[in-house]
Amino acid sequence: MTLYSPAKKIGELLTREFGKDPHFYFFSPDETTSNKFDEIFNVEKRAWSLPTKTWDLPESENGRIVEMLSENVLFSVMTGHLMNGEKAMMGSYEAFFPIITSQLLQQIKFIKQAREVEWRDPMPAVNLLSTSTCWRQDHNGYTHQSPALISTLLSLPSNLANCIFPIDDVTAEVAYDFMINSANVVNLTTFNKIDEPRYLDKELSEKGLDAGAVIYDFVSDADPDIVFTAAGDIVAKEMMKAIKVLKEDLPDIRIRFTYINSLSYRAIGTTENKLSKEKFVELFTEDKPIVANFHGYPETLENILENYTARGRLRVHGFNEEGSTTTPFEMLRRNAASRYDIAIDVAGLYGRDDLVQKYQTILDENHAYAVERGEDMIK
Q1: DSSP collapsed to 3 states, 131-142
Q2: Do residues 278 and 329 share a domain?
Q3: Are residues 164 and 31 part of one domain?
Q4: Does 165 share its domain with 243?
């Protein structure tokens, strides 16, 4: 199977942006390369005013790649650039974006006020590229595991923030196009830098972002008994793996998988295009159980889904603030977000205690294996 990197795709698109917009800037603490955006160094230099060494990356006093190990300073400079009417983006590790929370909240207040002033031109969007996420910190560990900014932005009644979750490189490109062309809003786009399968073509990716969510027919059954949903690349892959697990043990079960591409205040979808309750029923059915897996804190997604349907239908998994320097599957197991945790949920709904025990045994065996060998038994 050919694998693709959403982060490298974003780096390619940033490279094009530098070529066509002489005023575009990219801001990053010191992680442009580690986050796999480094293709931009082929076309632009890093801002630097001190003497250079032979091993340095391309540097210049006029460079438009700004790196500094201070998210606060970078965000301040970037917002000044945006307020001047020029586009920019900022990339960072997910766990360190919350450092700018207070500044970001003040900027959102400014956007809210500025939108009410007739003579003000629209300001290019505050675009944040969040990668190196909580689910893939195999070496850095618990200190680098926090999706907290997602919850903060989705809690703001000003409705000026979009949280976008591309599942592959194609949806990453669609998300990028949305970000670069939007104004008077904050866009937080979250994805991992690892190589992953490509699930969608561009048409379905665009449909998903426009609608907020889309049914993945290639892993779904008609007239489902249960609906799976996810927002986030790693957790979505686990949901699709869970479908495979369950189909082996419950061959008659009918499952639909609906992927959530974007979230905004109290809604699936973006600030300007929220999913209606009527459309929600089309995607998630009227009354079937919904099992969800979320990139961030489960309560954040659960609170949004409750605006569409009764809490009793919902079983929401996600990051439960359980972390360590551990293996990728063990991170999922520790937070009850793995394919077998999802399968345990469904087996419980069907009263299949035998399957609950089977899946729990598999989880326990992987834990023992990972502790002993430092790698997962389950891939």
Answers
A1: ECCHHHCCCCCH
A2: yes
A3: yes
A4: no
